[in-house]
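Incident log, entry 3
Record: Amidase domain-containing protein (589 residues)
Problem: checksum mismatch between cached and fresh output.
Input:
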Amino acid sequence: MQSRWTALGSEPAIDTSSNFRLGHRHYLARPSGFKRCRPNINGVGNNDEASLATYFRVEKNQIINADCLRAWRVNCLDNDDAFHPSFLQEVIFGGADDVHLESDTRGILEAWETLHVSFAPGLSITNGPYLVKNGFIHSIWRVYDDRQLAFVQSTWPSIEDESTYVEINAAGNGYRGHGIAVPARSYAQDFGSPTQDDSENGQRSLKGIRIAVKDNYHIRGTRTSLGNRAYYETSPTQSVTSAVLLRLINAGAHIVGKAHLSSFAMMEHPTSGGNAAAIAAYDWLDLALCSDTTGSARIPALQTGIFGFRPSTHSISTEGLVKAWSAMDTPALLGRDLLIFPKVLKVLQLAEPIDSYSKKPPFEILYPRDFIPEDSPEQVDAMKDFIEDEDWQKTAPVEEKDLQEYLCNLTCHGWFYSAYHSFENFRQEYMAANGHAPFVTEVVRWYWHLGSQVTSEQHAEMMKRLSVFKKWFLHQYQVGGLRNNMMAIHIDTIKPRYRDEYPGNGSPEVPGLRPTYLSAILGAPELAVPITQLQYQSRVTGKEEKLPMVVSLMGAPGSDMQLLEWTIDSLRKSNRPVKVNTGKVAFDT
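Fresh output:
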């Protein structure tokens, strides 16, 4: 049951794919770098027929026995959601000569119902399942239905130019959803080494991680929508991929597609809703890259029961991110598994922060009473009071002793002013091309109107006040002997958010300091952490359901890694999970 395959090199081809199904599973197969192989005269089967195969990349003089194959199957293939036993119809060992196949492997291969075993020394591809069609090797991509309508589009790298991404036209089977294609997880594993080295000399440390991207990042070969059709129609096909995405891709991550967001990433919460919905619902997705201005990572994390991380401002490149308030905007992360976050942070940080923070746990955890959700006593009972408004009254470096009054116009003079002027060029270009203003949602229209009424002098004054507040706050709470202070914050009231309730407000209040603004003003890292679940009566199901309770922890500026590591350690010591579930509830109990 053996034959020898010969790699015939590369040939140009159209960047296309083939659809097929195995049971209820939907797959796409696409040429793998145009690599072609053909059995020699002693081979079996028709070269023009499509066949399924599993490729094992071996080393020279490697000895393969039954235990080796069995371990690979259990540890890698069976944990690969794209793998199906039908791919074992043919097994190809490639990448090296002089491979020794022990006699005890025959029983394993027969149990797998393998029909052919082939050797292809010149064929060097990643391990895992493939389709061979017309002599060409095709990589396997499993297609999942986007049942939560989380994605704008599904993407993969172009075959001809891997630095360019193209949209995948894969229809889903579910209601209105796209088909989202993901590569086989076993492609990221080495045969004989089921537990891959995370370091790899600092390279490819995120190999195989699947990531969804908020559609306010530019990706070469795609257009950016920013959650608005007019913006999408005006936006050109991008020639450059954003810097943060390039770091993820170079570290081995795969970008599965672009996720929905609220229009212009404004305050129709949750603004990173597509990313959060995908992470909370899909176990085939590992991480989401979003952005955070004044809560766009932390609020969706609260509403879906996942981890959300806003890094220190300007610690990660924003090049290629469509910014609404450049002073506050930063890339951010959403995920179910907190253990992934430190690995990703190492890849994304522009430079190692100065190691001025103690490795010991925080001396104190501050709890500002300013942000207590008074309409949720059960939520309040979960945390205790610490700080009072009197701190500003006693120590403020300015005459205005009422903090809320001092920052009363923060949202309007800061956020709305910047959001309005950030998209001035877009509005002008659209008007010139179409003869009328672009359609935007009620919320965006109102916020832009408010921002247009703010003068540059008023904006400058607000930015000056934010600088004063930042200096005061860091001196008051996070310097000197209390350098390692951490602050626990309520992100928002925890309550059901139903889909038939409009998330915006046509005549919004313009509050002063809000809890999600604090880390943005300070440039500090903040981590939203699911800690428990609360009971509520659902008006949809008519039953008692569970809502995740998520609190936020904020560290000093630059203490990003310490914040993540301390939180992981604290969760473990308190027997709380560092990973939440997909689906209806975040925790098993």
